[in-house]
Amino acid sequence: MSRTATWTILGSGGGEAAPDRASSGHLLETPETSILFDCGDGVTGSFLRSGKRYEEVDTIIVSHTHPDHICGLSFFLQQLYLARRLRELAVYLPAEAVAGVRSALALQYLFVERFGFPVRFIGLKDNQSIPCNGASIIPHLNTHLTAHRGQPWAAGVENTGESYSFEMVYRTLRFAYSGDIGSLDDLEFCAGCRSLFVESTHIRLPELYARAESWRIRRLVLLHICPGFDTGGEVTGGFSGEVLPAEDGLVVPLDR
């Protein structure tokens, strides 16, 4: 475990493949716990390159089921099995996906019943805190997927448009991870957070900087970076805090 609270970016990319970025994946570490947020393509390799051990992960939390946030989950679980993990693992994900993910794992011959360690798949609930060994994780529903509701291509499936952002509290620290969002209105709960780890694909950065200043954010870490995105060319306007463009392997101390 980390000696201080840190956030390691395992995958800084977005929905479009990039040669130098894995898809979305982030590791929150405190002296008491280790939590993996999202597990897109390439995250398992990034995890190993960071020098981490699979056994250290206590909890996996998936924000939504777009491939760049979940398609690496089965491979990561396979590595836990091959590493002969013994401790229970909790996997939180949108409730609409629990049955489908279990079924998909079985189709890949990853039968969790024979893993050698208990795996609990738990549906996320809006505003219901997830206790994680001294850290509190609060999911907040956002509007990233709501445009699919009622569309003809969604007919006959059970998708309900679940997508979450996360408010996190550890000791005196309060910070947030946006996941993918529909609009900046989804992040009003972030007011007063020290750090905001925020996607950069579905928003306009000048608007983000203005909102972040009004929310009294001290640090913005820009995630979900697609090829061709100029991470250094945006003007931060009136935002007085720190702006960090994400890179795979970047470790952000949360207490500074």
Question: Care to describe what's here?
Answer:
The protein has a single domain, classed as Metallo-beta-lactamase, Chain A (4-Layer Sandwich), CATH 3.60.15. Helix content is 16%, strand content 28%. The chain contains 5 helices and 14 strands. A 7-stranded mixed β-sheet has the order 6-5-4-3-2-1-14. A 7-stranded mixed β-sheet has the order 7-8-9-10-11-12-13, with no helix packed on it. Strand 9 and strand 10 (173-177) form a beta hairpin.
Describe this structure in a few short sentences.
The chain has 256 residues and is an alpha/beta fold. The chain has 5 helices and 14 strands.
Which segments are poorly predicted (pLDDT under 50) over 5 or more consecutive residues?
none
The overall average pLDDT, rounded, is 94
Query: Approximately how much beta-strand content do the residues carry?
Result: 25-35%
What is the spatial order of strands in the main beta sheet?
6-5-4-3-2-1-14
Please identify which CATH superfamily we are dealing with: Ribonuclease Z/Hydroxyacylglutathione hydrolase-like
Number of E strands: 14
Principal-axes geometry comes out as globular
The main pleated sheet reads as:
7 strands, mixed
Multimerization status: single chain
CATH fold call: Metallo-beta-lactamase, Chain A
